[in-house]
Amino acid sequence: MNVGLVIVIAIILGAVAGGTIVVMIARATRDSDAALQAAAWELPAGVAELLESIEFPAIIVDTSIKVVAASPAAVQFGLVSQERLAVAELVALVEDLRRSPEPMTRELEIPRGPYGEATSSIEARASQFGVRYTLLLVADRTEFRRLEEVRRDFVANISHELKTPIGAISLLAEALTEAADDPDMVRHFADR
Fold first, then answer.
1. What is the DSSP string of 158-176?
2. Exposed end of the chain (fewer CB within 10 Å): N or C?
């Protein structure tokens, strides 16, 4: 056989083998990248089940602020609607968290329902959950705020109501002091 022909055949076989190896490496790299990316986009095992079992509002959103998982309390409270956050203040909190890696807590007044002017007082805490997710925990503080208002009103009312008897006792004490020399007047004021 001709040496030149053997060299050409060897070059062609080498090129085919090299091309096949390059294609196989490229596919393996692409497949492993796809697997890593798919794993990075999935919630860790058990997280959705955990959210289903807790009794307070908790929500996990992705980078597009789409609700990935939420507790039943979050849905009942009206924080989630059609895989979206239904409260603009919570969307703003998530967006602010994206600019800062530190967990954030905010006191918010949110509409109690779609109609009327009633509001609910909530404390919302946002924290990064992995690379792709944000965890929102919400506590309803409406009853606490209402009790604080009742306490404040009670203190204001009781202090106002006590001014009258305290003023009367003060005047009587002054009258007793003035009439200290007259025993009949002291008895008269003491009987009151």
1. HHHHHHHHHHHHHHHHHHH
2. N
**143-167 pLDDT, tens digit each:** 877 888 878 878 777 776 777 777 7
Distance in angstroms (rounded) separating the CA atoms of residues 147 and 19 = 76
Cα–Cα dist 190/129, whole Å: 74
Which sequence spans correspond to the domains of the chain? 1-41, 47-140, 145-191
Give the integer Cα–Cα distance in Å for 161 and 71: 47
Please state the length of the chain: 192
pLDDT in tens, 81-107: 888 998 889 999 999 998 887 999 999
Superfamily (CATH) of domain 47-140: PAS domain (3.30.450.20)
124, β-bridge pairs: 106, 138
